[in-house]
Amino acid sequence: MIVRLLREPLLQFLALGAVLFALYGFAGKRGVEVPEKIVVSASQAASLGDGFVRTWRRPPNEQELQSLIEDYIRDEILYREGRAAGLDRDDVIIRRRVRQKMEFLADEMSTPEPSDAQLAAYLASNTERFRAEDRLTFRQVFLSITRRADTIESDSKQLAGILARADGAVDATALGDAFLLGEEFRDVSPSKVTSIFGEGVAKQLSGTETGRWQGPFASGFGQHFIFVSERVPGGLPPLDVIRPAVQREWANARRMEAGQKLYASLRGRYEIVIEPPQDKAAKAASR
Question: Distance between CA atoms of 213 and 252, rounded to whole angstroms?
Answer without folding.
Answer: 46
